[in-house]
Design a protein that fits this description.
The protein has 106 residues and is of the alpha+beta class. 13% of the residues lie in helices and 21% in strands. It has two helices and five strands; from the N terminus they run E-E-H-E-H-E-E. It is globular. The N and C termini lie far apart (31 Å). Bound molecules: FE2/S2 (inorganic) cluster.
Length: 106
């Protein structure tokens, strides 16, 4: 069990508890974090689980695969540390991580 802080575009913070192994998207949905639509249910097909990981935590999230990279390339608010939440599996090393939510999902 750990905690991840989701920060909305207006700086509203939401602290969510998670069990390692769930995806970042699932953690957000389970904790009713606003701004994560997850329309495809985690199939890497909609791009509506876009998150921007804090610089200092980005290395902990691994590397986007080809499918994720393709979806991210179509994401309007893409940043250097953007990830699709459904493609990031949480680990205990992510306890304390902060991620930002874009103003709009696509
Ligand atoms: S939930 Fe659709 S791409 Fe992540």
């Amino acid at each position: 069990m750990g905690k991840i802080t989701f920060i909305e575009h207006d700086d509203t913070e939401h602290v969510a508890e998670f069990e390692a192994g769930a995806s970042l998207m699932q953690v957000a949905v389970d904790n009713a974090i606003p701004g994560i639509d997850a329309d495809c249910g985690g199939e890497c097909a909609c791009g509506t689980c876009h998150l921007i990981v804090s610089d200092e935590w980005f290395d902990k999230t691994g590397t986007p695969g080809d499918d994720e990279e393709q979806m991210l390339s179509m994401t309007p608010e893409r940043a250097r540390t953007s990830r699709l939440g459904c493609q990031v599996k949480t680990t205990e090393a992510m306890d304390g991580m902060t991620v930002r939510l874009p103003e709009f999902q696509m």
